[in-house]
Structure formats: structure tokens, C-alpha cells
Structure prediction request, 372 residues.
Amino acid sequence: MQGHSDIDHLMMARALRLAERGAWTTRPNPMVGCVLAQGDEVVGEGWHQRPGGPHAEVFAIEAAGERARGATAYVSLEPCAHTGRTGPCADALVAAGVSRVVAAMRDPFPQVDGSGFERLRQAGIEVEHGLMEAAAQELNRGYVSRLVRGRPWLRVKLAMSLDGHTALESGESKWISGEASRRDVMRWRARSGALLTGSGTVMADDPQLTVRLDDDAEFAPPLRVVLDPGLATIARGRIREGDAPTLYVHAANAKPPRELGSERVAVPAAGNALDLAAVLRVLADRGINEVQVEAGATLAGAFMRAGLVDEVLLYVAPVLLGTQARPLFAGLQIQDMAQRMALRIVDNVSVGDDLRLRLVPGRAMVDAGAAG
Ligand code: AOF
Ligand code: ZN
Prediction:
């Protein structure tokens, strides 16, 4: 970005890496990192670790002590101006005597949203924002999505064979991807506020949908969500076991059993199909930033058709499942080439013997054709 030195970039990159350390614990709050520097020397740093705990700036100011005076503060998010569970960071930076604040992005939180910058400027502090903004937006895509669009960021995790299948005709899908991929999935689960599946998957695979890590890293257990229009699976499955709460989402006419043991919520439905946008609104209202869908082709296809998929996490295993097997997304009505759906590969890495692709859906090809 124009106007910023190499040191500025290095320091902001460091702040972003610090922010990421909170990925498994800060929810529903954003991940935020802060570096205080005198020239090219770091004098203090910190990151937001958990909701209710001190913000990134507070840790950095504490670490810097007197050396915060005259320093530049690099923050991955606009310093807050509101008194929430902690006092305003903008005031803390002013009191610490910081002379310049460089932020990667504005905080869309309604009580902040530019007022943090304003407060700093009024105190005579030089304020810049927009440095490495794309990386900052990407890091907090869930938080931004919830606040700006009123729905969580939706990631669909799928594992497929080389010939594009996710299960045998029988529904059997254990295991297409290798062990390393399944371990990798756990890390993506850990940063998700909710793990969502359908009653079909509960019936067929009996998933636990919990985070199991190799080490004892700290994480906040994601909410488990089962889309079950008729509440057919409410009394069954491993999804009710473990420490994480489970939420059943159903149609209004479902008959809940008397003894429930789990929370449930009704959303509008057309026949057996729940209103998926309404499901996401319910989750956003609960402070869920990122939802990871782990279900079969039917539910994955329904989210795709509804245009609600933000990201596809796709593990490709070097195996063949044959012609009768199930597709990646069911029910996409594509008759001719002009209707094909385009996705963009964001990154691709090897995980064990598998390949992991992260993709974002693009515009339908037919629109792109019409536009150009
Ligand atoms: C900052 N630095 O490190 C963080 C900020 O729950 P509270 O009271 O801590 O407030 C959460 C809000 O504070 C959150 O929505 C966001 O606007 C801001 N988070 N701000 O200056 C930080 N974590
Ligand atoms: Zn703050």
C-alpha cells in the first residue's frame, strides 16, 4: 500500500499473526493483534485471547510500559471507543502516549465503526487505516459477515474421490479422505462457532461433531446444529454426547418429544425443506461468526442452490468410487455449459496423501456471459 514503509508492513504482518492466535478462543469477538513499536523495534505486543478478557491493545501497552510513549501502535482492527466488558482501547492508547496508530481495517461493530479513529484523532494522534486490509478482512471474515450481512460466514467441508464422489450409493462415506485430512478438519472445526449437519447425516454416519485435537490446545467448543425438520433424530446419536451444546432446528409442525435434553428452535419451512437463510439468521443472532457445514450432498447442494455458500473446504482423495456413487452437491440444475458454476481456488495444499482445496463460489457463468 502506498505511503507505508517496509517496517509498517512487517509490523502489521506481525499484528495479524498475533491476532490469529485467538482463532480458537475469541468467539464471538474478532481476532485482534497489536504491536507497539519505536521505529523498527517492538516494545510491546498482545492479542485478544477470549471474550470478556482484555483487548489486544491493553496487553501491548502493559508489555511496553513507559516505552509506549511516542510509539506507533499497529492494530489489525480499529481500536474500540466503547465501554463494553473492558474500557475503550482508544482512550488507553491516548493515555499511554502513543503518537501514531496504524490500523488494518475499520471495526464494523455499530458502537465502534469509525468512532475509535475519531477519538484518537481528536487527541492529536496520527491515524492511518487500510494497511494490509485484505488480509485483515479475510482473517475476520466470519465476524465481518455476521455484523455486515447479518449472517455467519458459511464454510462447507467435503471430502471427495478423484472421480468427484462423496459417498457410495448406499451412503457409506467412511473414509474417503485420509487420517491427515481428518486431523486437518479438526483445526477448521476449532475456529468455527457452529458445526452444522442434517438429520440424514446423523442417521447415516452418526457423527459426534466435536473438536478432537492431538495436543491440549485451548478452544471454545463449537455449537452443534442439526437441521431436522421433523425432529426425527432428536433422541439419537453421538451428536448428543460430549461437552458441546447441540441445537436442533426444525419446522413449526414438528412434534417434539416431551423429554428433550437439547435446545430446539423452529424456522419457516416449505415442505421438508427448512428456510436456510432463516437458519443462518438464528445462528447470527447467537453470535456465531463462522459455520462449518459437514453434511451430505443433499444439504450441501441445498446451501449451494440458495447461494449461501461462502467457502468450500474440499479434500480430494486419490481414490475412485465408481459411477453409482453420490455427487458433491446434489440438485444443481445445469443443462448446458453456459450454466456451469464457477468457483475460484483460494489455496491448495497437500495434506497427507490428499489434496486440500479452498474455494469460493463465483458468479453463475450464465450471468458472467450476459454481462460480458
Ligand atoms: C479492540 N481491540 O482486541 C478487540 C476489540 O466483548 P467486549 O466488551 O470485549 O467488546 C467486544 C467488541 O470490542 C467487539 O465486537 C469489537 O468491536 C471490539 N473488539 N476491539 O480495540 C481488541 N477484541
Ligand atoms: Zn478495545
Remarks:
- The CA atoms of residues 46 and 55 lie 8 Å apart.
